[in-house]
């Protein structure tokens, strides 16, 4: 399982690096062509937008998986015991609700985008909404895994946010 996890993470990182490289090259060449010769690459804006959506989606999944996603824990980090566990479960429930709305909305956009094409490149606009859909599903799977681990451990998962030990004065 660890090898699969590492392989998927490396695959996602390679995909993100590829997206960044293609975006950088296409936009740089487009800028040089516009300022140097008064012409440009027609597909540069649409391609950069599509790659950026996928880049952000994949990086958000990785951030959640690594526990580095944006979070506000000023209050919860000071709690211990039952209150910390209860708030952890409430936060996961709210995250699940938000992911439900994200997934269903993105899926509706995928269905609508199947019949719509981008103006210049002509790709189905479902590809753009597909990045959000994939992100939502992957985050839901990660959230379910966290909840399962926490349920089996009888509290907070080891990889998730854990209450700090000691009094506030003793904490680093």
What's the SSE blueprint?
Layout: H1 2-37, H2 44-65, H3 81-113, H4 126-153
Number of strands: 0
How much helix is in the residues? Answer: 55-70%
| Residue fraction in strands | under 5%
> What is the CA-CA span between the terminal residues?
34 Å
Q: What is the average of the pLDDT values?
A: 85
How would you classify the quaternary structure?
single chain
The largest pleated sheet is described as: none
Structure summarized in a few sentences:
With 172 residues, the protein is mainly α. The protein is 69% helix and 0% strand.
Detailed description of the structure:
This protein has 172 residues and is mainly α. The chain is 69% helix and 0% strand. It has four helices and no strands. Helix 3 runs antiparallel to helix 4. The longest helix has 36 residues. The radius of gyration is 21 Å and the shape is elongated. The two termini are 34 Å apart. 15% of the residues are buried. About 7% of the residues have low confidence.
């Amino acid at each position: 399982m660890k090898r699969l996890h590492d392989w998927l993470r490396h695959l996602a990182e390679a995909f993100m690096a590829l997206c960044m490289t293609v975006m950088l090259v296409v936009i740089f060449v487009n800028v040089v062509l516009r300022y140097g010769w008064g012409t440009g690459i027609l597909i540069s804006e649409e391609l950069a937008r599509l790659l950026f959506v996928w880049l952000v989606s994949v990086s958000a999944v990785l951030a959640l998986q690594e526990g580095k996603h944006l979070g506000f824990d000023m209050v919860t980090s000071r709690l211990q015991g039952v209150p910390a566990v209860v708030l952890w479960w409430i936060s996961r429930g709210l995250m699940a609700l938000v992911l439900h709305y994200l997934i269903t909305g993105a899926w509706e956009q995928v269905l609508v985008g199947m019949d719509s094409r981008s103006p210049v490149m002509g790709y189905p606009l479902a590809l753009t909404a597909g990045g959000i859909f994939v992100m939502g599903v992957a985050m839901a799977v990660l959230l379910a895994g966290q909840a399962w681990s926490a349920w089996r451990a009888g509290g907070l998962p080891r990889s998730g946010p854990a209450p700090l030990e000691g009094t506030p004065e003793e904490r680093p």
